[in-house]
Amino acid sequence: SSLHFSADCNAVLKALQPIFQEQGMTETVHNWEDHGYLATYIKKNGSFANLRIYPHGLVLVDLQSYEDHTKGRDEVDQLLNKVEERMKELFHGNIKRVKRLPAILRGGVIDRYWPTADGRLVEYDIDEVVYDEDSPFQNIKILHSKQFGNILILSGDVNLAESDLAYTQAIMGSGKEDYTGKEVLILGGGDGGILYEIVKLKPKMVTMVEISFDK
Fold first, then answer.
1. Which of 46, 53, 117, 187 could form a disulfide with 37 if both were Cys (CB 3.0 to 4.6 A apart)?
2. What is the pLDDT of residues 124-137, one digit of tens each?
3. DSSP annotation string for the chain
4. Which stretches are transmembrane (predicted)?
């Protein structure tokens, strides 16, 4: 969770300290003359919080809970609600922005978080690992998503999902090209989706040429 405002760092720390102390959390505070405060709070059950207060008016609250998912989420929500309420009281509602991010589930049996090519993190509703093997060239994963169907991931990069059929069809001409009885050349067929779809259209011959790694 993050809050933007303009205020004295020490005042913010003193206002928020009781919230964490009421939870029976052990406190450690680090302060820098020009860089604000970092306070850490540790609970007996292993949960902990980092409270970072910056002089320019940014407060970051990071919480990690080791309880089961539902109980841990409720615990985090309650604590963040108290932090936001106390901040609004302290500054009489004069806070520019409050942003609360959803919890990241770490250490799960199935990894749901995958980066995009432009550096963003996407959470998929993955419920099954269909395939996971190392080829001589790369790691190959096929994960099943309730929303997107099977997803192909090569060495950690999301390549294609069953829901991307429209992309394959667009490459083939979106039905404008008649492949019946024709000889077709596919250059760089990758996942084989074009080949799989084009044989349904009764071509005479299909040749797929892919990059060879043989020396």
1. 53
2. 999 999 999 999 88
3. -EEE----HHHHHHHHHHHHHTTT-EEEEEEETTTEEEEEEE-TTS-EEEEEEETTTEEEEEEE--S-HHHHHHHHHHHHHHHHHHHHHHTTT--SEEE-PPPP--S-SS--EEE-TTS-EEE--EEEEEEEEE-SS-EEEEEEETTTEEEEEETTEEEEEGGGHHHHHHHTTTT-S--TT-EEEEE--TTSHHHHHHGGG--SEEEEE------
4. none
